[in-house]
Amino acid sequence: MDSECGRKGRQLSPELGGGGDYHYHHLNPNQRHLFFNHHLLKVVVMCAMVTLTSFMLYQASESPFQILRRSIYSSFSFSSHAYHSVCNSSSVNEENELEKTLKSAAMKDNRTVIITTLNAAWTEPNSIFDLFLESFKIGNGTQDLLKHVLVVALDQKAYSRCLEVRLHCHALTTEGIDFSGEAHFMSEDYLKMMWRRIDFLHTVLQLGYDFVFTDADVMWLRNPFERFHPDGDFQIACDHYWFNYTDLNNSPNGGFNYVKSNNRTIQFYKFWHTGRDYFPGKHDQDVLDVIKMNPFIKRIGLEMRFLDTAEFGGFCEPSKDLDRVVTMHANCCIGMENKIHDIKMVIDDWKRYNISIPIGGERNLSTRFWTVPRICG
After folding, report:
1. What DSSP designation does 12 have?
2. DSSP of 318-349, one letter per residue?
């Protein structure tokens, strides 16, 4: 005979359709189905509670710094050796490899690098990347700067091309996204590429490195470090330069900027990247144009400086005098062929300017002005 406890253990609860004193083998098929589901639900809930508790204990074993570092680097794949090894490296190796590459590329101050991003579409022969490299070679005082250029390759072809020209190379991949093709302005891939760049630059600042970020369609014609403002945390070129170098009404262009690593810029880049969620469908430059007025910028004490287009010009607003020009950006120009056409004209104009013979200490006026933009602008 069953004990009282055993008998109750096999009783059916009223909510499952029983009166409390029926045994399982007395149940009809519907009641048996309910009885089985009821006990299965109990088992699932108990398993979930055990799993959640284990996860919380595991997280508690990590320090806040470890958790933060893991969250920052988990989306990156780093390497300076072989592109495919990047995808399989651990998070520790990822950070170490990036730091090694930055250290190798840094200038004598051991903390400043020049960074550009590159994908396969810009690496074709006689394409934008070749013109970018040529500008360093024909610029005034820019040849040695090539030793400090770090190419952030967004695909395998770009990485291989970087190795061919013997620059500092870093492979940056994003799982499930192919950046190898031409990213048309404001397309989905274009936006992903722009925001990926901001995220990466934020990481560089966290690692303690200052940088000049330059798009590959910016021609380097003079050494910009001689023209940067000494008191700026974040200095950026402009599509249009309306006022003085501190006026927030200037129109910034994210394709060329000089940033010093400190707490202010690290907070700023994090704030900037967060803007992606608040302004969906906008690229980084549009978001910057909004957040530059935000009280947060003043609160963190960020010193923002705008670079005069008279020196750091572009097709949107070309510099007026080649005696002053430092860089020339193929902005306000859509389409690869259009960019290449007008950039080649920039190179030709600069060569003509440099071979012209000064008359009375000044160059011939006809060589001191751009013939571009022709198609762009």
Report:
1. P
2. --S-TTT--EEE--S--SHHHHHHHHHHHHHH
Contact by Cβ (8 Å): 180, 172: no
Which pair of tokens denotes residue 327?
Answer: 């860089």
Phi, psi of 121 (to 5 degrees): -60, -25
Do you find a cis peptide bond into 29, omega within 30 degrees of 0? no
Please report how many Cα atoms fall inside a 13 Å half-sphere around the Cα of residue 15, on the Cβ side.
3
Q: In a 3-state reduction of DSSP, which class is residue 256?
A: strand
> Could you give the C-alpha distances from 198 to 18, 117, 285, 359, in angstroms and in order?
63, 11, 10, 46
Q: How many residues does the chain have?
A: 377
pLDDT tens series, the chain, 377 aa: 444 444 334 444 433 344 444 344 444 444 444 444 555 555 445 555 545 544 444 444 433 333 333 333 333 333 334 444 444 444 567 678 899 999 999 999 989 999 999 989 899 888 999 999 999 999 999 999 999 999 999 889 999 999 999 999 999 876 555 545 444 444 566 677 777 899 999 999 999 999 999 999 999 999 999 999 999 999 999 999 998 999 999 999 999 999 999 999 999 999 999 988 888 878 889 999 999 999 999 999 999 999 999 999 999 999 989 999 999 999 999 989 999 999 999 999 999 999 876 666 666 666 888 999 999 97
Can you name the residues that pair with 213 across neighbouring β-strands? 115, 257
C-alpha span between 129 and 116 (Å, rounded) = 10
Q: For the sheet containing 327-329, what is the strand order? A: 218-220, 327-329, 312-314
**Three-class SS of residue 20?**
coil
Q: Are 169 and 100 in contact (CB under 8 A)?
A: no
Q: Which long-range contacts (CB under 8 A, 24 or more apart) does 294-297 make?
A: 296/271, 297/268
- Nearest CA-CA partner of 225 in 122, 75, 107, 130: 107
Region of 219 (left: φ > 0; alpha: ψ -120 to 50; beta: rest) is beta
Instruction: Give the start-end residues of each E strand in the chain.
Output: 112-118, 149-153, 168-171, 210-214, 218-220, 234-240, 251-259, 304-306, 312-314, 327-329
Distance (Å, rounded) from C-alpha 359 to C-alpha 362?
5
